[in-house]
Amino acid sequence: MTRFVIWFGKNADAAIALLVAVVVTLMDIGFQLPHEDQITSSAILLVMGLLASSVLRDRGRRAPVEAEVRDTLQASSATLDGLTEKLSRLEEFENVVSGTKRALEETAVVRVISGGQVGEVLAEARRGTDRWFFKGGTGTYIRARTLPECVATARRERRTLLFRLEIIDPTNVEVCEAYARHRRSVTDDPDGTGETWTLERTRKEAYATILAACWHKQRFGMLDIDMGVSATMTTLRYDLSKSCVVVTRDDPRGEALVIDNDKFYYGWYSAELQISLDQARRVPIEQARLAPLDDEPTVEEVRKLFEVLGIELARGYTDRDIVDIIRKALRAKDPFE
Predict the structure, then answer these.
(1) What is the pTM of this model?
(2) What DSSP element (H or E) covers 225?
């Protein structure tokens, strides 16, 4: 009974209209009621009233629904705006992730090797290379291995060879003394050549590298060599070949870095070494033709060479000192051995 009452309350207008329609129908099929005309007119008015009531009620019900729909649409619009902003932030985040991934990939190829591997890595870098850029101290390893072996390979393959060298200035006593002090601060023991670092040794090593560059240039015409001497020292050595860059320290036992040539770090180092060389005092290697050197240069030839180069030998150098420079230039010991 309760359910019927609830139903009737919700659908009273329709139920009354249906009842009226049934009464009128019965009258049409022959049932006689008193005052039929009056009843029919009242029924019509009642139905019209019920219809108007239903329309008003539907409108009343529709207004909250429309308001709810409008509020829902507004909330959806705000949600979409927030979603657009989040998507924009997501795109920025993806760009950051992509950049970070690239940086990690680049970092991964900066290999760290032990001191015992340096000689092998440099030997691999020399194979087939058509260029070598160096920046460091006095260039002992350049004289011992890099320059003679690269020249021998280029001569055998009948191709050009590009060399760019930057070492400390042997005429600058201050920088040579600073370099010697630094090397002694690392260790007082002799290095791989069997010698300790002093001011005189530092100057002779640098002179020897200049002499070696001129000596090899005179014997191999397709060697394009440019050289500069610097008034500042560096604790690192940079060796750049066609395949990679190797960054080492003055201690042959220390770790080293290797950067392959297909990574942007390689280009950075290449540009840095060239710009650094441009700022150094240039050694006019092309003038060496005015002072020919024998296969075993004499003291007089070496003195003449440095004279035409405009590089002053240390005051007081004896013939024995010059012979020592010649030995270091043409028979240098490998410091990594």
Answers:
(1) 0.70
(2) strand 223-230
CA 133/CA 122 separation, integer angstroms? 13
C-alpha to C-alpha distance for 330 and 212, rounded to whole angstroms: 6
Which residue reads 């000596």 in tokens? 215
Tokens of 65: 């629904």
Which pLDDT does position 187 carry in this prediction? 78
> What confidence score (pLDDT) does residue 213 get?
97
pLDDT by residue (tens digit) across 197-213?
A: 999 999 999 999 999 99
The larger pLDDT score, comparing residue 264 to residue 142, is at: 142
Domain boundaries, the chain: 2-74, 112-330
In the CATH hierarchy, which top-level class contains the domain 112-330? alpha beta
Show the DSSP H helices in 220-263 as ranges: none
DSSP string, 128-153: T-SEEEEESSS-HHIIIIIHHHHHHH
- Do 243 and 269 contact (CB within 8 A), yes or no? no
Q: Find out whether 240 and 323 touch, Cβ atoms under 8 Å.
A: no
